[in-house]
Amino acid sequence: MSKIDVCVVGMGYIGLPTSVVLAQAGWRVHGVDINEQVVESLSSGVATFEEPGLSQALSNSVISGNLTVSQVPEKANVYIIAVPTPIDANNEPDTSFIRSAVQSVARLIKADDLIVLESTSPVGTTELLRDILLDLRPDFVDVELYFAHCPERVIPGSMMKEIISNDRVVGGIDGKSAEKAASLYRSFCQGEIHLTDARTAELTKLTENSFRDVNIAFANELSIVADHLGVNVWEVIELANRHPRVQILQPGPGVGGHCIAVDPWFLVASAPLKTPLIRSARTVNDSKPKFVVDRIAKYLHETNRRSVALFGLAFKANVEDLRESPAVSIVQEVAKLFPDVRVSVVEPFVDVLPPALQEIVNVHHADLQDALDSEQLIVLLVDHDIFKMIPQSALTAKDLIDTRGIWKELDI
Asked: Which domain holds residue 201?
Protein backbone atom coordinates (compact mmCIF):
# COMPACT_ATOMS: atom_id res chain seq x y z
CA MET A 1 0.00 0.00 0.00
CA SER A 2 1.14 3.52 -0.72
CA LYS A 3 1.01 6.29 1.86
CA ILE A 4 -2.20 7.61 0.27
CA ASP A 5 -5.14 5.36 -0.59
CA VAL A 6 -7.13 7.83 -2.72
CA CYS A 7 -6.01 10.99 -4.49
CA VAL A 8 -8.91 13.27 -5.45
CA VAL A 9 -8.13 15.88 -8.11
CA GLY A 10 -10.50 18.84 -7.78
CA MET A 11 -11.79 20.15 -4.44
CA GLY A 12 -14.99 21.74 -5.67
CA TYR A 13 -18.67 20.96 -5.10
CA ILE A 14 -18.18 17.24 -5.82
CA GLY A 15 -14.53 16.53 -5.09
CA LEU A 16 -14.60 17.97 -1.57
CA PRO A 17 -17.68 16.07 -0.27
CA THR A 18 -16.38 12.89 -1.92
CA SER A 19 -12.99 13.32 -0.22
CA VAL A 20 -14.65 13.89 3.16
CA VAL A 21 -16.93 10.85 3.05
CA LEU A 22 -14.02 8.68 1.92
CA ALA A 23 -11.93 9.98 4.82
CA GLN A 24 -14.81 9.31 7.20
CA ALA A 25 -14.98 5.75 5.85
CA GLY A 26 -11.35 5.22 6.90
CA TRP A 27 -9.51 5.86 3.64
CA ARG A 28 -6.37 7.97 3.62
CA VAL A 29 -7.28 10.71 1.17
CA HIS A 30 -5.23 13.43 -0.47
CA GLY A 31 -7.15 16.26 -2.14
CA VAL A 32 -5.68 18.39 -4.91
CA ASP A 33 -6.69 21.87 -6.04
CA ILE A 34 -4.78 24.39 -8.13
CA ASN A 35 -6.18 27.31 -6.10
CA GLU A 36 -3.77 28.16 -3.30
CA GLN A 37 -6.45 29.87 -1.20
CA VAL A 38 -8.71 26.81 -1.45
CA VAL A 39 -5.83 24.58 -0.32
CA GLU A 40 -5.03 26.82 2.65
CA SER A 41 -8.66 26.95 3.74
CA LEU A 42 -9.30 23.21 3.44
CA SER A 43 -6.00 22.34 5.10
CA SER A 44 -7.20 24.37 8.07
CA GLY A 45 -10.44 22.42 8.10
CA VAL A 46 -12.53 25.31 6.78
CA ALA A 47 -14.91 24.55 3.90
CA THR A 48 -14.89 26.88 0.89
CA PHE A 49 -18.66 26.74 0.38
CA GLU A 50 -21.73 26.24 2.54
CA GLU A 51 -23.28 22.79 2.65
CA PRO A 52 -25.15 21.27 5.62
CA GLY A 53 -22.93 18.80 7.48
CA LEU A 54 -19.81 19.50 5.43
CA SER A 55 -17.90 21.87 7.71
CA GLN A 56 -17.80 19.61 10.76
CA ALA A 57 -17.09 16.50 8.70
CA LEU A 58 -14.23 18.29 6.94
CA SER A 59 -12.75 19.52 10.21
CA ASN A 60 -12.91 16.05 11.72
CA SER A 61 -11.29 14.49 8.64
CA VAL A 62 -8.39 16.94 8.68
CA ILE A 63 -7.85 16.58 12.44
CA SER A 64 -7.86 12.77 12.16
CA GLY A 65 -5.16 12.95 9.49
CA ASN A 66 -7.27 10.97 7.01
CA LEU A 67 -7.56 14.01 4.71
CA THR A 68 -4.72 16.18 3.49
CA VAL A 69 -4.87 18.83 0.76
CA SER A 70 -2.25 20.43 -1.46
CA GLN A 71 -1.74 21.82 -4.95
CA VAL A 72 0.24 18.75 -6.00
CA PRO A 73 -1.06 15.16 -6.47
CA GLU A 74 0.50 12.37 -4.43
CA LYS A 75 1.01 8.73 -5.31
CA ALA A 76 -2.04 6.65 -4.44
CA ASN A 77 -3.87 3.45 -5.35
CA VAL A 78 -6.98 5.23 -6.59
CA TYR A 79 -7.24 8.53 -8.46
CA ILE A 80 -10.60 10.30 -8.62
CA ILE A 81 -10.95 13.13 -11.11
CA ALA A 82 -13.66 15.59 -10.09
CA VAL A 83 -12.85 18.74 -12.04
CA PRO A 84 -15.17 21.16 -13.88
CA THR A 85 -16.53 20.21 -17.31
CA PRO A 86 -17.95 23.45 -18.70
CA ILE A 87 -19.23 24.33 -22.15
CA ASP A 88 -17.65 26.96 -24.36
CA ALA A 89 -19.28 29.92 -26.11
CA ASN A 90 -20.62 27.57 -28.82
CA ASN A 91 -22.11 25.15 -26.26
CA GLU A 92 -19.41 22.61 -27.04
CA PRO A 93 -17.95 20.50 -24.19
CA ASP A 94 -14.66 21.71 -22.74
CA THR A 95 -12.63 18.76 -21.47
CA SER A 96 -9.44 20.75 -20.89
CA PHE A 97 -9.68 20.43 -17.09
CA ILE A 98 -9.92 16.65 -17.39
CA ARG A 99 -6.91 16.59 -19.68
CA SER A 100 -4.91 18.70 -17.23
CA ALA A 101 -5.94 16.45 -14.35
CA VAL A 102 -4.76 13.34 -16.19
CA GLN A 103 -1.46 15.01 -17.03
CA SER A 104 -0.94 15.95 -13.37
CA VAL A 105 -1.21 12.34 -12.14
CA ALA A 106 0.28 10.48 -15.12
CA ARG A 107 3.79 10.27 -13.67
CA LEU A 108 2.43 8.79 -10.43
CA ILE A 109 0.38 5.97 -11.94
CA LYS A 110 1.54 2.40 -11.27
CA ALA A 111 0.28 -1.07 -12.13
CA ASP A 112 -3.16 -2.05 -10.74
CA ASP A 113 -4.19 1.54 -10.02
CA LEU A 114 -7.81 2.60 -10.42
CA ILE A 115 -8.61 5.90 -12.18
CA VAL A 116 -12.17 7.12 -11.67
CA LEU A 117 -13.82 9.95 -13.58
CA GLU A 118 -16.57 11.55 -11.49
CA SER A 119 -16.92 14.68 -13.61
CA THR A 120 -20.07 14.64 -15.73
CA SER A 121 -18.75 14.24 -19.26
CA PRO A 122 -19.67 13.61 -22.91
CA VAL A 123 -20.07 9.96 -23.87
CA GLY A 124 -16.65 8.45 -24.53
CA THR A 125 -14.69 10.67 -22.14
CA THR A 126 -13.60 7.81 -19.87
CA GLU A 127 -12.08 6.09 -22.90
CA LEU A 128 -10.49 9.39 -23.88
CA LEU A 129 -9.02 9.68 -20.38
CA ARG A 130 -7.50 6.21 -20.74
CA ASP A 131 -6.06 7.03 -24.16
CA ILE A 132 -4.54 10.31 -22.92
CA LEU A 133 -2.90 8.52 -20.01
CA LEU A 134 -1.48 5.77 -22.21
CA ASP A 135 -0.13 8.37 -24.64
CA LEU A 136 1.66 10.00 -21.72
CA ARG A 137 2.79 6.65 -20.35
CA PRO A 138 3.45 4.35 -23.34
CA ASP A 139 5.31 2.03 -20.97
CA PHE A 140 1.90 1.12 -19.48
CA VAL A 141 0.29 -0.21 -22.67
CA ASP A 142 0.59 -3.80 -21.44
CA VAL A 143 0.20 -2.99 -17.73
CA GLU A 144 -3.05 -3.71 -15.86
CA LEU A 145 -4.86 -0.46 -15.13
CA TYR A 146 -8.53 0.14 -14.26
CA PHE A 147 -10.74 2.96 -15.49
CA ALA A 148 -14.32 3.80 -14.49
CA HIS A 149 -16.93 6.51 -14.66
CA CYS A 150 -18.93 7.03 -11.46
CA PRO A 151 -21.09 10.15 -11.86
CA GLU A 152 -22.44 11.94 -8.82
CA ARG A 153 -26.18 12.26 -8.17
CA VAL A 154 -26.35 14.90 -5.45
CA ILE A 155 -28.04 18.27 -5.15
CA PRO A 156 -26.74 21.34 -3.30
CA GLY A 157 -28.30 21.55 0.12
CA SER A 158 -28.39 17.77 0.58
CA MET A 159 -24.99 16.67 -0.69
CA MET A 160 -23.63 15.06 2.46
CA LYS A 161 -26.76 12.95 2.85
CA GLU A 162 -27.32 12.05 -0.79
CA ILE A 163 -23.70 11.16 -1.53
CA ILE A 164 -24.15 8.34 0.97
CA SER A 165 -27.80 7.37 0.53
CA ASN A 166 -28.37 7.62 -3.22
CA ASP A 167 -27.96 4.69 -5.60
CA ARG A 168 -24.76 4.85 -7.61
CA VAL A 169 -24.05 3.95 -11.23
CA VAL A 170 -20.53 2.57 -11.71
CA GLY A 171 -19.37 2.12 -15.29
CA GLY A 172 -16.08 0.44 -16.04
CA ILE A 173 -13.98 0.30 -19.20
CA ASP A 174 -14.23 -3.43 -18.56
CA GLY A 175 -15.78 -5.74 -15.99
CA LYS A 176 -12.74 -5.74 -13.70
CA SER A 177 -12.68 -1.95 -13.64
CA ALA A 178 -16.35 -1.78 -12.71
CA GLU A 179 -15.91 -4.29 -9.88
CA LYS A 180 -12.86 -2.51 -8.51
CA ALA A 181 -14.59 0.89 -8.55
CA ALA A 182 -17.72 -0.61 -6.98
CA SER A 183 -15.64 -1.86 -4.04
CA LEU A 184 -14.47 1.68 -3.38
CA TYR A 185 -17.96 3.18 -3.44
CA ARG A 186 -19.45 0.39 -1.33
CA SER A 187 -17.20 1.56 1.50
CA PHE A 188 -19.41 4.61 2.06
CA CYS A 189 -22.44 4.37 -0.22
CA GLN A 190 -25.54 2.89 1.42
CA GLY A 191 -27.55 3.01 -1.79
CA GLU A 192 -27.46 0.23 -4.35
CA ILE A 193 -24.43 0.06 -6.64
CA HIS A 194 -25.38 -0.58 -10.27
CA LEU A 195 -22.55 -1.93 -12.43
CA THR A 196 -22.39 -1.24 -16.15
CA ASP A 197 -19.92 -0.10 -18.81
CA ALA A 198 -18.40 3.39 -18.91
CA ARG A 199 -20.35 4.63 -21.94
CA THR A 200 -23.66 3.56 -20.43
CA ALA A 201 -22.79 5.31 -17.17
CA GLU A 202 -21.88 8.49 -19.03
CA LEU A 203 -25.09 8.43 -21.06
CA THR A 204 -27.17 7.63 -17.96
CA LYS A 205 -25.95 10.74 -16.17
CA LEU A 206 -26.61 12.93 -19.20
CA THR A 207 -30.03 11.32 -19.63
CA GLU A 208 -31.06 12.11 -16.06
CA ASN A 209 -30.35 15.82 -16.36
CA SER A 210 -31.61 16.11 -19.94
CA PHE A 211 -34.91 14.52 -18.90
CA ARG A 212 -35.34 17.16 -16.23
CA ASP A 213 -34.34 19.93 -18.62
CA VAL A 214 -36.90 18.87 -21.23
CA ASN A 215 -39.68 18.73 -18.64
CA ILE A 216 -38.73 22.12 -17.20
CA ALA A 217 -38.72 23.52 -20.75
CA PHE A 218 -42.32 22.39 -21.22
CA ALA A 219 -43.34 24.21 -18.02
CA ASN A 220 -41.40 27.33 -19.03
CA GLU A 221 -42.88 27.40 -22.50
CA LEU A 222 -46.35 26.87 -21.04
CA SER A 223 -45.83 29.89 -18.77
CA ILE A 224 -44.99 32.03 -21.81
CA VAL A 225 -48.10 30.81 -23.64
CA ALA A 226 -50.30 31.45 -20.60
CA ASP A 227 -48.91 34.97 -20.23
CA HIS A 228 -49.66 35.62 -23.91
CA LEU A 229 -53.24 34.42 -23.45
CA GLY A 230 -53.79 36.24 -20.17
CA VAL A 231 -54.21 33.03 -18.15
CA ASN A 232 -52.73 32.19 -14.73
CA VAL A 233 -50.19 29.45 -15.49
CA TRP A 234 -50.03 28.32 -11.85
CA GLU A 235 -53.75 27.56 -11.83
CA VAL A 236 -53.46 25.77 -15.19
CA ILE A 237 -50.67 23.52 -13.90
CA GLU A 238 -52.48 22.83 -10.64
CA LEU A 239 -55.63 21.80 -12.49
CA ALA A 240 -53.79 19.79 -15.17
CA ASN A 241 -51.91 17.89 -12.49
CA ARG A 242 -55.23 16.64 -11.16
CA HIS A 243 -55.13 14.24 -14.09
CA PRO A 244 -53.86 10.87 -12.80
CA ARG A 245 -51.17 10.62 -15.49
CA VAL A 246 -50.03 14.24 -15.70
CA GLN A 247 -47.33 15.81 -13.52
CA ILE A 248 -46.17 19.12 -14.96
CA LEU A 249 -43.20 20.75 -13.24
CA GLN A 250 -43.13 24.35 -12.05
CA PRO A 251 -41.82 27.06 -14.39
CA GLY A 252 -39.19 29.55 -13.35
CA PRO A 253 -36.94 32.35 -14.63
CA GLY A 254 -34.70 29.86 -16.46
CA VAL A 255 -32.49 26.92 -15.54
CA GLY A 256 -29.27 27.22 -13.57
CA GLY A 257 -26.66 25.16 -11.79
CA HIS A 258 -23.74 23.34 -13.32
CA CYS A 259 -25.76 20.21 -14.21
CA ILE A 260 -29.11 20.81 -15.87
CA ALA A 261 -28.02 23.98 -17.66
CA VAL A 262 -24.90 22.29 -19.06
CA ASP A 263 -25.20 18.51 -19.33
CA PRO A 264 -27.82 18.38 -22.12
CA TRP A 265 -25.31 20.10 -24.40
CA PHE A 266 -22.95 17.15 -23.83
CA LEU A 267 -25.69 14.85 -25.10
CA VAL A 268 -26.29 17.11 -28.10
CA ALA A 269 -22.56 17.12 -28.81
CA SER A 270 -22.49 13.33 -28.72
CA ALA A 271 -25.17 13.09 -31.44
CA PRO A 272 -25.84 16.52 -32.99
CA LEU A 273 -28.26 15.30 -35.66
CA LYS A 274 -30.19 12.99 -33.32
CA THR A 275 -31.14 15.39 -30.53
CA PRO A 276 -33.55 18.08 -31.83
CA LEU A 277 -35.86 17.83 -28.80
CA ILE A 278 -33.04 18.20 -26.27
CA ARG A 279 -31.58 21.12 -28.23
CA SER A 280 -35.00 22.81 -28.38
CA ALA A 281 -35.48 22.38 -24.64
CA ARG A 282 -32.16 24.08 -24.01
CA THR A 283 -33.20 26.93 -26.32
CA VAL A 284 -36.49 27.39 -24.43
CA ASN A 285 -34.84 27.41 -21.03
CA ASP A 286 -32.01 29.66 -22.14
CA SER A 287 -34.56 32.15 -23.51
CA LYS A 288 -36.67 32.34 -20.36
CA PRO A 289 -34.49 35.00 -18.63
CA LYS A 290 -35.15 37.34 -21.59
CA PHE A 291 -38.88 36.82 -21.13
CA VAL A 292 -38.53 37.90 -17.49
CA VAL A 293 -36.40 40.90 -18.43
CA ASP A 294 -38.99 41.94 -21.01
CA ARG A 295 -41.74 41.86 -18.34
CA ILE A 296 -39.65 44.04 -16.03
CA ALA A 297 -38.79 46.41 -18.88
CA LYS A 298 -42.45 46.76 -19.86
CA TYR A 299 -43.37 47.74 -16.32
CA LEU A 300 -40.53 50.25 -15.97
CA HIS A 301 -41.33 51.86 -19.31
CA GLU A 302 -45.03 52.15 -18.51
CA THR A 303 -44.61 53.48 -14.96
CA ASN A 304 -41.37 55.41 -15.40
CA ARG A 305 -40.21 54.13 -12.01
CA ARG A 306 -36.56 54.62 -11.10
CA SER A 307 -36.02 51.54 -8.93
CA VAL A 308 -36.75 47.82 -8.73
CA ALA A 309 -35.97 45.05 -6.24
CA LEU A 310 -35.08 41.56 -7.40
CA PHE A 311 -35.36 38.79 -4.84
CA GLY A 312 -32.85 35.94 -5.14
CA LEU A 313 -29.64 35.23 -7.04
CA ALA A 314 -28.96 31.53 -6.39
CA PHE A 315 -29.77 28.94 -9.04
CA LYS A 316 -32.16 27.16 -6.67
CA ALA A 317 -33.88 27.74 -3.36
CA ASN A 318 -32.07 27.87 -0.01
CA VAL A 319 -28.47 27.58 -1.25
CA GLU A 320 -25.64 30.03 -1.90
CA ASP A 321 -24.73 28.43 -5.25
CA LEU A 322 -24.80 30.99 -8.09
CA ARG A 323 -23.40 28.78 -10.83
CA GLU A 324 -25.16 29.35 -14.17
CA SER A 325 -27.96 31.13 -12.29
CA PRO A 326 -30.49 32.80 -14.59
CA ALA A 327 -31.17 35.32 -11.83
CA VAL A 328 -27.66 36.75 -12.17
CA SER A 329 -28.08 37.27 -15.91
CA ILE A 330 -31.50 38.87 -15.36
CA VAL A 331 -30.04 41.39 -12.92
CA GLN A 332 -27.19 42.16 -15.33
CA GLU A 333 -29.56 42.75 -18.25
CA VAL A 334 -32.02 44.91 -16.32
CA ALA A 335 -29.16 47.08 -15.03
CA LYS A 336 -27.73 47.38 -18.54
CA LEU A 337 -31.07 48.31 -20.12
CA PHE A 338 -31.89 50.84 -17.38
CA PRO A 339 -28.63 52.49 -16.23
CA ASP A 340 -30.60 55.24 -14.45
CA VAL A 341 -32.70 52.74 -12.47
CA ARG A 342 -31.56 51.61 -9.03
CA VAL A 343 -31.49 47.79 -9.04
CA SER A 344 -31.65 46.38 -5.51
CA VAL A 345 -30.76 42.70 -5.13
CA VAL A 346 -31.95 40.75 -2.09
CA GLU A 347 -30.02 37.51 -1.63
CA PRO A 348 -29.82 36.37 2.00
CA PHE A 349 -27.55 33.41 1.24
CA VAL A 350 -24.54 35.47 0.11
CA ASP A 351 -22.70 38.17 2.02
CA VAL A 352 -21.54 40.05 -1.07
CA LEU A 353 -22.66 40.18 -4.66
CA PRO A 354 -20.60 38.24 -7.23
CA PRO A 355 -17.86 40.23 -9.01
CA ALA A 356 -19.90 40.48 -12.23
CA LEU A 357 -22.57 42.46 -10.36
CA GLN A 358 -20.20 44.45 -8.15
CA GLU A 359 -18.87 46.14 -11.27
CA ILE A 360 -22.31 47.54 -12.20
CA VAL A 361 -22.78 50.93 -10.53
CA ASN A 362 -26.59 50.86 -10.33
CA VAL A 363 -26.76 47.39 -8.72
CA HIS A 364 -26.87 47.21 -4.92
CA HIS A 365 -27.06 44.40 -2.38
CA ALA A 366 -30.12 45.16 -0.27
CA ASP A 367 -31.59 44.00 3.02
CA LEU A 368 -34.92 42.19 2.73
CA GLN A 369 -36.85 44.51 5.03
CA ASP A 370 -35.33 47.63 3.46
CA ALA A 371 -36.42 46.45 0.02
CA LEU A 372 -39.94 45.72 1.25
CA ASP A 373 -40.15 49.16 2.85
CA SER A 374 -38.77 51.18 -0.05
CA GLU A 375 -39.54 49.41 -3.34
CA GLN A 376 -42.80 49.33 -5.27
CA LEU A 377 -41.84 46.76 -7.92
CA ILE A 378 -40.59 43.46 -6.52
CA VAL A 379 -39.48 40.63 -8.80
CA LEU A 380 -39.19 37.16 -7.28
CA LEU A 381 -36.47 35.09 -8.99
CA VAL A 382 -35.73 32.40 -6.38
CA ASP A 383 -38.23 30.72 -4.06
CA HIS A 384 -36.15 30.83 -0.87
CA ASP A 385 -38.12 29.85 2.23
CA ILE A 386 -37.47 33.28 3.73
CA PHE A 387 -39.37 34.87 0.85
CA LYS A 388 -42.28 32.49 1.36
CA MET A 389 -42.52 33.73 4.95
CA ILE A 390 -43.14 37.35 3.95
CA PRO A 391 -46.62 38.22 5.23
CA GLN A 392 -49.20 38.94 2.56
CA SER A 393 -49.91 42.28 4.20
CA ALA A 394 -46.39 43.42 3.24
CA LEU A 395 -47.03 42.64 -0.42
CA THR A 396 -50.63 43.58 -1.17
CA ALA A 397 -49.79 47.17 -2.06
CA LYS A 398 -46.76 46.15 -4.16
CA ASP A 399 -46.45 45.48 -7.87
CA LEU A 400 -45.11 41.92 -8.12
CA ILE A 401 -43.58 39.80 -10.85
CA ASP A 402 -43.44 36.29 -9.43
CA THR A 403 -41.44 33.84 -11.57
CA ARG A 404 -41.76 30.99 -9.04
CA GLY A 405 -45.44 31.08 -8.15
CA ILE A 406 -45.18 31.58 -4.38
CA TRP A 407 -47.16 34.84 -4.59
CA LYS A 408 -49.31 33.72 -7.52
CA GLU A 409 -52.50 35.24 -6.12
CA LEU A 410 -50.86 38.68 -5.90
CA ASP A 411 -48.78 38.66 -9.10
CA ILE A 412 -49.49 41.52 -11.52
From this structure: 6-206
Is 150 part of the annotated catalytic residue set? Answer: no
The residue among 93, 76, 97, 113 whose CA lies nearest residue 11 is 97
Whether residue 82 lies inside any domain: the answer is yes
pLDDT digits (tens, 9 = 90+) for 311-337: 999 999 999 999 999 999 999 999 999
Number of domains in the chain: 2
- Catalytic: 7? no
Residue 407 lies in a domain: no
What lies within 8 Å, CB to CB, of 321 at 6+ separation is: 13, 49, 156, 257, 314, 315
Q: Rounded to whole angstroms, how far apart are CA atoms 259 and 261? A: 6
Distance, CA of 13 to CA of 321 (rounded, Å): 10
How many Å apart are CA 14 and CA 381, to the nearest integer?
Answer: 26
Catalytic residue among 150, 189, 259, 288: 259
**Of 150, 189, 205, 316, catalytic:** 205
pTM for this model (two decimals):
0.91
Tell me the CATH number at 183: 3.40.50.720
Distance CA 16, CA 65 (A): 15
Cβ contact 149:202 at 8 Å: yes
pLDDT in tens, 209-235: 999 999 999 999 999 999 999 999 999
62 lies in a domain? yes
